Amino acid sequence: MDAARDAWRSEQGAEQLMDELGQFGGGAPLCACPMLEQVFTETGDGERLMALLSRHYCAALADNPIGHPPFRHGFNGTAGTILLARSGRAQLMIQSREPGETSTSAYIFSDAERFDAVLAGEADARIVRARSAGDGGKKFETEQLSLRGGERIALDLQSETLLVDRVTRRLVVLRLVRSAAEPQPGRQYDAETGDMLMQTAATIATSRQEAIIALLGRMNRTDAAPEMARTALGEGDVSLRWQALRECLALDSEQGFCALSQLARRADDPLAASAGALRAQLLETHAELAQLETAQCPA
């Protein structure tokens, strides 16, 4: 497998492609990475390099049937993904989709940019573009596409998503994705109403921190409340901060409510409105919190 990797990287353009993936993952614009840009804006090099990669690894597997290509991969019976490389904020992968139809009732948007190079196959797809509809909801516009080998697509995943509705011949796509330097949470919206259904952490590290905070809450670790309050009042992912605030309120009402009051008074904090609404709701239900706020909470 190592020999197959080295043989592929010695092919014309392969080493340059990997080097430029590192530059792109570090924040360089696509136009500053000529090989990478060519693969994802023109036909030819992407198809050639992926055919060569397949040839080298298939030959290695034929000679070594229990060999394992050094790529993270997955397949759920309909769609497959092979992660070819990752560098910084960028990932390069091959994705495939088997023939058949797919329906969806929700659209997902994330803080990233994506470039697709269709290598083979035939499919009917659509780009769904979202725009604000007020009250946190979205309105959607749709562009129908007929995907064939040679197609090149660029997407701003904050407001655009590509949905494959029907595959008539196995679709194979080379995909380049780069997350934002400080990504906002991903969001899922109801396709019919435009209402937000859920929000997810933008990074694995944030998701891990949310899980830790939730676990400490379930363990009733009251000694963790001060750190949760500091997390809620700090900077960074708003989903993580809100999770920390909720768990802090449950573990220690005094510290949690003081943190909530401070958040509600921060006019420039994205959580201020939500914190203010929750504070008002709690004061209406538990009048004694007003006395606690006056006596214990910092101004």
Chart the SSEs and their pairings:
Layout: H1 2-9, H2 14-25, H3 34-41, H4 45-63, E1 72-75, E2 79-87, E3 90-97, E4 100-101, E5 106-109, E6 112-132, E7 138-148, E8 152-156, E9 160-179, E10 186-190, E11 196-200, H5 204-218, H6 225-233, H7 238-251, H8 253-264, H9 272-285, H10 288-296
Antiparallel strand pairs: 1-2, 2-3, 3-9, 4-9, 5-10, 6-7, 6-8, 6-9, 10-11
Helix pairs in contact: 1-4, 5-7, 6-7, 6-8, 7-8, 8-9, 8-10
Key phrases:
alpha+beta; 3-stranded antiparallel β-sheet
Textual characterization of the structure:
With 299 residues, the protein is an alpha+beta fold. It is built from 10 helices and 11 strands. Strands 1, 2, 3, 4, 6, 7, 8 and 9 form an 8-stranded antiparallel sheet that branches. Helix 5 runs parallel beside helix 7. The chain is elongated, with a radius of gyration of 24 Å. The model has no long low-confidence stretch (mean pLDDT 91).
Principal-axis shape: elongated
Q: For the residues shown, what is the average pLDDT?
A: 91
Give the N-terminus to C-terminus distance in angstroms: 63 Å
Q: Sheet with the most strands? A: 8 strands, antiparallel
- Overall number of strands: 11
Contiguous runs where pLDDT drops below 50 for at least 5 residues: none
SSE string, helices as H and strands as E: HHHHEEEEEEEEEEEHHHHHH
Q: If you compute it from the alpha carbons, what radius of gyration comes out, rounded to the nearest whole angstrom?
A: 24 Å
User: How many H/I helices?
Assistant: 10
Helix content: 40-55%
